[in-house]
């Protein structure tokens, strides 16, 4: 690999700007993350995209907001605009756990150090910039801005908040993946169009002031949702907004959304069509160094980078539409897949990195097995408003062929420097079950499952049934747990056939809307009976822009406006969570008392039999699993451990 120079990274200081021979900058990007010049890090992607448009771009990573704010003025004012992002994760997820306790590590900071990212970072940075440079436009984007673009419930402050455009004082918001709207913003500004006049670009949102006219666009239909003020007074009205927001976010011909915020009007323009193969290939093949900026060399490794250093992202988007997940709200429901040739070119770059040992940590995406999947008849997709393509059943128009993915794996493994390529992203096991995926070829599904089990995992396969209760699963937009049983049967069959000793790692969530204590007791009993001992799980964490969060705050399902009960109190959440740990001595008396009160002695006999032969024969192998529904799949790696009963139960 060619030796890198400091000028190979986007500049972060005046010294680095001068190294490039620049006397001024066009765009300055502020980020809540350390600067890692890699296609898996959004701030780097945006910086490189802007650079590819011929702009002079600099990055100010993790600016200090506790001193004299020198970081916000040191590079001067850009000619076009400031761009602001809170980072690859919502800063509140980065800073706090599900119990609202401050985390002791930040994965996007060198050495995992905390204190370098403020709460609500996008708003904090933007407000400072507007104060320091009132005449320079500020454009916000990234997942924090994207998911907070309308009135939303903020779990950490426990209140409804207006669009982040209001709290940040920014001039424009780009939601979703930013390549397409940024291209148009830059094109118009380079033509001399004032930033204030750029307000009809797809996938952007602006606040229209009382003295300004609503821009017209004859190609768009409009829809108005309940105002922020009405939402503050009426939880049911707030819930009713989400159906419109979610459906319009996932339509190929969406309406423009309006919402009143005081005397201003929030205007959210429709999204762009899904990126084409050429477009997404171009984004991934920009001149990334694929490394953290040299300024961090003496500060320690950046955990998030170490996790994905030797991984390959093959697609964006997710058509699962899970009620607790934000992926489709940000990346979209439709899958944007890279070409096999583009993926292989990236594999070659990784394989030639000086410290590469021959092992790719992941070839995946938000869900590992959605590569190249799309509608068979596009015109049907054009009219669809369903938030999920696979719930409650798999759409008959969805092509779920795993053949392109199997072929991609085989092509990657044929590279002479690749010893093994792992699948670290979560796999949708339900799509591999013929009883659920009725339109697929069972032999093809088995071929993919066997390919993964024999060549692409190291002892464990991660899947996400999430719960065992059918009513809870229905609300989650997940299939019946019976299909997990079916998948486990196929998994065990391949295990025996190939003489493997692989473990299945199931993900589960407690405290989800509609979940009762009895549901958790059933979950504990059924998973125990299957041979699982779950040690680390995470309760449901309400994050903006999900059905489950709307229900958590309002008590109403946004699609039916019927009441749904949700565990709210810390006591109830803790008690539901304790059922995961039925095997701990400190929980046994409580479980016995609780199940007796519920009249579920049948479950008590399963969980705490008088002579627990399972406990006696339990192997000493340790395995844990942590799950955070707001964290994208490629950031959940290496967080799962698992215990099995014994060899007999694993192979039955």
Automatic annotation (TrEMBL):
Residues 614-628 have a biased composition (Basic and acidic residues). Residues 304-584 form the Radical SAM core domain. Its cofactor is [4Fe-4S] cluster. Residues 636-652 have a biased composition (Basic residues). Binds 1 [4Fe-4S] cluster. The cluster is coordinated with 3 cysteines and an exchangeable S-adenosyl-L-methionine. SMART domains: Elp3 (SM00729). [4Fe-4S] cluster binds at residues 318, 322, 325. One of its GO terms (molecular function) is 4 iron, 4 sulfur cluster binding. The keyword 4Fe-4S applies. The keyword Metal-binding applies. PANTHER family: UPF0313 PROTEIN YGIQ. Belongs to the UPF0313 family. This is YgiQ family radical SAM protein. It comes from Pseudotamlana haliotis.
